[in-house]
Amino acid sequence: MALIFIRTAIIFVTLLFVMRLMGKSQIGEMQPFEFVISLVIAELACIPMADTSIPILYGIIAIITIFVLHQIVWLLELWFKPVKNIVSGKPSVIINKNGIDEYQLKKNNLDVGDLIESMRVAGYFNLDDVYYGLYEANGSFSALEKEKTASPSLSYLLIDRGKPDANNMSVCGFDKDRLNKFLSEQNVKLKEVIAMTVNAEGRCYFQKRGEKYKILQVEVNGEW
Fold it and tell me: What are the respective helix, strand and coil percentages of the chain, to the nearest 5?
């Protein structure tokens, strides 16, 4: 027991030292390669702690090797921008002046619901609350917000890339016939709609594929 305690303490101190050398990003929001390195280091640390038949020096050398590789990648990113783009990725502009960029949405394996959730976490509750919305390389969401146009009600996503949400439609007082009528008035087919949201005030964000979004006014039941 004492041997395991001592081995664990040594590995802990080594990890603490190495993670401190790697910088603040290791304890904050990490780039993809830093996240992978953290996982690998955690796995390497567990093996010598649990298995006393493995010399503890092996674990320490493996952890230090990962640290050296981390520094090499960091220097390459610093000196050669293409390397940084390949290893860590680039920010993706998901929302631009025309609305949602569907290509960037697909590229990042997201749907409109995921985007709306990220915006809510960042404090934006309508798709048109920002001029630009970006997913940074570390996965965080950033935005250039518009002048405050806060709405006292929450927007519901009725159509997400051509797929209607029956539950949200019911909340907003839309049924299939009414939705089809609305789309007909806009001269748009369901599969051509990237996003459609409605709030309790009847404020509707509507975007057709390949076109700039519109802000429309519709009648709602106002019960939410």
Answer: 50, 20, 30
Q: Please give the C-alpha separations between residue 218 and each of 72, 197, 204, 206, in angstroms, as whole numbers.
A: 57, 11, 7, 11
Amino acid making up residue 10: I
CA 157/CA 191 separation, integer angstroms: 15
> Are residues 132 and 95 in contact, defined by beta-carbon separation less than 8 angstroms?
yes
Sheet containing strand 203-208, strands side by side: 163-164, 156-160, 193-198, 203-208, 214-217
Q: Can you read off the two tokens belonging to residue 28? A: 């904050």
- Checking 37-40 for CB contacts under 8 A at 24+ apart, the result is 37/66, 37/69, 37/70, 40/66
Both structure tokens of 179? 């939705």
Please write the tens of the pLDDT for every residue from 43-97.
767 777 667 777 778 777 877 887 787 788 778 877 887 777 676 677 889 999 8
Inter-residue contact 190 to 164 (CB < 8 Å): yes
Alpha carbons 20 and 12: distance in angstroms, whole number: 12
pTM of the complete model: 0.66
